[in-house]
Amino acid sequence: MDAFLIEGGRKLEGVVKISGSKNASLPILAATILTEDDVYLENVPDLSDVKTMLKLLSNISKEISYEDGKLLIKQGGEVQTVAPYDLVKTMRASVLVLGALIGKYHSARVSFPGGCAIGARPIDQHLKGFEAMGVKIDIEEGYIVANVDKLRGARVVFDLPTVGGTENVMMAAVLAEGETIIENAAMEPEITDLASFLNSLGAKIEGAGTPLIRIQGVKKLHGGSYRVIPDRIEAATYFIAGAMSGGEVIVDDLIPEHIDAVLKKVAEAGIDFKVEEKRVVVYGGKRPKPVQVKTRPYPGFPTDVQAQIMSMLTLARGTSVIVETIFENRFMHVNELNRMGARIKVEDRTAVVEGVEKLKGAPVMASDLRASASLVLAGLVAEGVTKISRIYHLDRGYERMEYKLNALGAHVERIKE
Ligand code: EPZ
C-alpha cells in the first residue's frame, strides 16, 4: 500500500488547476446507460472511483475508449443489467447505476451497497422512489433485484434531501411514462450537472438545483458530448491548503459560487482572499480566528469539507465548534489530528477544537477520502515529517495530489509501504 511522506512548514505559492468533479462524473457516467448512442465526456477526472464506474459500465453494456482526451462511451455487445458485489463493495456510488438500469431496461440486479467508514449510508429513499414508480424491489442474497413492466412517472417526496437518491430517481424517470415530481430534492451542483447532461441527450428535466424537480418522460435519449463541472470539493481543499500554509495560492478552473459557504466561513476566520470569475486567489499564512461550523445540505457548508476546515481550525487563535449533521461517523480524522498535537474533543456529532500554536509531524492513518485530505493539510503545516498510511483513500477523489501540491512548493513523496 502507498503512503505519503510530507515535510511540513514549506510555504505554498503558485497556481493549482482544479480537475473535473468526481461527484458529477459518477452519476453522469451511470446515466450513459440510458442511451445506446455514442457519448463523449470531457473533464472526467482520472480517479480510482471513476475507473471503478467505467469497469461497471463495461460489465453492463458499454465500450469505453479515449479519443484526444475525451472519454468515448459506446454501446457494446450483449447487455447484462448487473452490478456485482466485488465492484459495489469497493465503491458504494455504484448504486447509481440502479436508476439508469431501471429506466432503460426495467430490470436490475445491484449488490446492496454496504455502509462505509463515515456511516451506514442507507438507500431507503432511493428504493421508496422506485417503488412509487411501480418498480418491484426484492433483496436476494445481498442483491437488490428490481423489476417493472410499465415504468410510470410518480410523485416522490424524500424524507431528506439525498444526493444519490435524487440522482437515482431522476435517471429512472427520464424514460418513464408521464411526469415524475421529486419533492425535497437535493440541490447540489452535481444534481444540476446531471440534469443538464441528460437534457443535452433529449431528456426533459426542470428545476434541478431547487427542492422541486419535474421530469417529463420521453421515448428515448440520443447521444452527445458534455463537459463535466469542476470539482468543488477539490477546489475547497486546495483553497484551505493555501489559507493554512500559503503565500499566494491561485486556485484555478473552479466555479467560485459552488464553494460560497466555504469562502464565507474562511472569510469569517479572517483569511484574506479574492474571488475572480474562474479562480480564487488566497493569501495564506495568517493564524485563523476560531469559528462555528455546521455542515448542511447544499448550499450550506459541505460535509465533504468538514475535515479539511477542521485541520485549519486546529491552529486557530481560540476554540472552534464543528457540528456534523449529515453523517453519523465523520470524525475519524480527529484522533489522527490529535496525534499531531491538535486539541479536539468529540461529543456525539460535535467536535470542540481548541486552537494550538503548532502541529508536529507524526505517523498517521487515513480512514476515508476527506479525512485523508485533512491529514495532508495538517502535514503541510506541521513541524517535521508526517507519514500518512493507506492513501488509496485519497486516490479515490484527488487527481495527482502530490504533483499538484509539489508544484506549489510542498514536499510530498509517495512511498510503498
Ligand atoms: C453524496 O453521497 C456524495 N457522494 C458524498 O460525497 C457526500 O458526502 C454526500 O452526497 C452528501 O453531500 C457522491 O456524490 C458519489 P446522501 P450520498 O444520499 O448520495 C442519508 C465524497 O467524499 N440517507 O445525500 O450517499 C445518509 O445516511 C462523498 O465525495 C438516508 O438516510 O449522500 C446520509 O446521512 C462522501 N437514506 C444523508 O442522507 C437514503 O436513502 C446524506 O446522504 C439516502 C441517504
Task: Provide structural commentary.
This protein has 417 residues and is an alpha/beta fold. It has 14 helices and 24 strands. The chain has two domains: 2-19 and 230-416, Enolpyruvate transferase domain (UDP-n-acetylglucosamine1-carboxyvinyl-transferase, Chain); 22-227, Alpha-beta prism (UDP-n-acetylglucosamine1-carboxyvinyl-transferase, Chain), CATH 3.65.10. Helix content is 31%, strand content 27%. The chain has a four-stranded mixed β-sheet. The chain has a four-stranded mixed β-sheet with strand order 2-15-17-16, covered by helices on one side. Strands 4-5-3-14 form a four-stranded mixed β-sheet. α4 (97-105) packs parallel to α6 (163-173), α6 (163-173) packs parallel to α7 and α10 (306-313) runs parallel beside α12 (369-381). The longest helix is centred in the middle third of the chain and has 14 residues, at 232-245. Bound molecules: ligand EPZ.
Question: Strands, helices and their partners?
Answer:
Blueprint: E1 2-7, E2 12-17, H1 22-31, E3 39-42, H2 48-60, E4 62-67, E5 70-75, E6 82-83, H3 85-88, H4 97-105, E7 107-111, H5 124-132, E8 136-140, E9 143-147, E10 155-157, H6 163-173, E11 179-183, H7 189-200, E12 204-206, E13 212-216, E14 224-227, H8 232-245, E15 246-252, H9 260-268, E16 272-275, E17 279-283, E18 292-294, H10 306-313, E19 319-323, H11 332-339, E20 343-347, E21 350-354, E22 363-365, H12 369-381, E23 385-389, H13 392-395, H14 401-406, E24 412-416
Parallel strand pairs: 2-15, 3-14, 6-7, 10-11, 18-19, 22-23
Antiparallel strand pairs: 1-23, 1-24, 3-5, 4-5, 7-9, 8-9, 11-13, 12-13, 15-17, 16-17, 19-21, 20-21
This protein binds ligand EPZ.
